[in-house]
Write a structure and sequence with these properties.
- This protein is an alpha+beta fold.
- 40% of the residues lie in helices and 25% in strands.
- The chain has an 8-stranded mixed sheet.
- A hairpin with a 3-residue loop joins strand 1 and strand 2.
- Helix 2 crosses helix 13.
- The chain is elongated.
- The relative contact order is 0.19.
């Protein structure tokens, strides 16, 4: 047998043994499916804002402990980690985020949230799992339980990490500041998944750049207030802010190549409180999304240049304040790890395993594997009813009809999303923890 044939046979044999391991672990999914569905509904009905995930964390810790995991609680505030050692072998980290959003749910589900909470600024706000983190938590709890119940199918160490406060962007950092890297074994590889508005049952992988970096910038421009009837006595910050909003759009359209993916969004403009009073200042909140450091620096520099120039052109009373706030890192999937996972998904899911396009959303997951120096991959989990998605696609109205993450109408269809998410986590973990057969030559 020639070398190429041996290599091909070895790859096929390894894939077969991985399938055997996955079959052994996932055989128990039917027995816990209804229980997991109830867990999901309970989490969905009881969402908690970032750094307030006390109820969620308690339930996660209890379930991990019942499965035999060594549990670490309160990491970075409300973070929970379960560690399950099962002999010699690699260490795999699986991560799920736990927090919800200040959104009033409008899904009409029988288990829809009616929760309220006090946010970080002291405001009373509605709370809903409008981004699907409740699905992430449930899928990881299911995968963790199935792995614990089938120790003969794998070997190594599994780390199940439940992260707080992904939405405000500081949950991963707080866990790391609280000694995360000293509390658990260093992972050889790390995985995470996120529900996105694609057909339920699909899993989408992508090597290299997957999610953008995001920078939040607060801009305050200063003018001179006056009566609305005497604009000649004022330096109007509303006009300055308006010109800045328009001019910022030219960064993408006139300063970057058409092939360079960048998003610049002005999400908030606040100024004044009366129609006949020209205010002293105006505030803009700007969000910038890029995929590499060079482009990020260029776009942020352009924002500063435009703001300074517009204020100078209008004779602003003093220089604008430009404050850079929360930053999300880019998510750049490791090529080798992504190929291994995508091959494993293709073997399990067949045509439901797809390659997904570049996404302009952002995440803080990558900070965790980066702190360990571990490669990672992050994939998408479809969560939209297949018939509804296909009908909207035929009409060409997907973007108009299908609710996206953070919409008050966003909620994953329970099945097959839940089963697929559990299967994906187990399969990715077993790609490294499974027991590959040995060929003798």
């Amino acid at each position: 047998m020639n070398g190429a044939a041996i290599t091909r046979e070895k790859e096929e044999y390894t894939a077969m043994t991985l399938k055997d391991s996955a079959d052994a672990v996932l055989a128990g999914l039917g027995d816990i499916r209804s229980e997991l569905e109830e867990v999901y509904k309970d989490l969905h009905a009881h969402p908690e804002l970032g750094h307030q995930e006390h109820r969620t964390a308690t339930r996660v810790a209890e379930r991990l402990s019942n499965c035999g995991y060594q549990v670490h609680e309160g990491i970075g505030g409300t973070g929970v980690i379960g560690v399950l050692a099962n002999g010699e072998g690699p260490t795999v980290l699986l991560r799920a985020d736990m927090d919800a959003l200040p959104v009033l749910e409008e899904t009409g589900l029988p288990y829809a949230s009616t929760a309220e909470a006090t946010d970080a600024s002291g405001r009373r706000v509605p709370v809903a799992h409008a981004c699907g983190h409740d699905m992430h938590v449930t899928c990881l709890l299911g995968a963790a339980r199935l792995m614990a119940a089938a120790p003969g199918a794998w070997q190594g160490t599994l780390v199940a990490l439940f992260q707080p406060a992904e939405e405000p962007g500081d949950g991963a950092d707080r866990m790391l500041a609280d000694g995360l890297t000293d509390r658990v074994p260093r992972p050889d590889v790390a995985f995470a998944q996120h529900v996105l508005p694609y057909p339920a049952g699909q899993v989408g992988t992508r090597a290299g750049s997957f999610l953008s970096a995001a920078d939040n910038v607060k801009i305050t421009v200063h003018g001179r207030g006056a009566h609305g009837s005497a604009p000649q006595a004022a330096i109007d910050p509303v006009v300055i802010a308006s010109m800045i909003v328009v001019r910022l759009q030219t960064i993408v359209s006139r300063e970057l190549a058409a092939t360079q993916p960048v998003v610049v969004t002005v999400g908030s403009v606040q100024a004044g409180s009366s129609g006949n009073v020209i205010p002293e200042s105006a505030e803009l909140l700007v969000n910038v999304r890029t995929y590499d450091d060079e482009t990020r620096r260029a776009v942020l520099a352009a924002v500063r240049r435009i703001v300074d120039a517009e204020c100078d052109a209008s004779g602003a009373t003093r220089a604008p304040q430009i404050e850079e706030g929360t930053r999300f890192p880019p998510t750049v999937n490791d090529d080798v790890v992504t190929r291994e996972v995508s091959d494993a998904f293709a073997a399990l899911f067949g045509e439901r395993a797809v390659t997904i396009e570049l996404q302009s959303a952002s995440e803080d997951f990558s900070r965790i594997p980066d702190a360990f120096g571990a490669p990672y991959t992050y994939w998408a989990l479809g969560c939209v009813d297949l018939d509804a998605y296909q009908a909207a696609r035929q009409r060409g109205t997907v973007t108009q009809e299908i609710p996206v993450n953070h919409s008050p109408r966003f909620a994953p269809v329970l099945q097959p999303t839940l089963d697929t998410g559990v299967q994906a986590l187990v399969t990715a973990a077993l790609a490294h923890l499974g027991k590959p057969g040995r060929m003798s030559r």
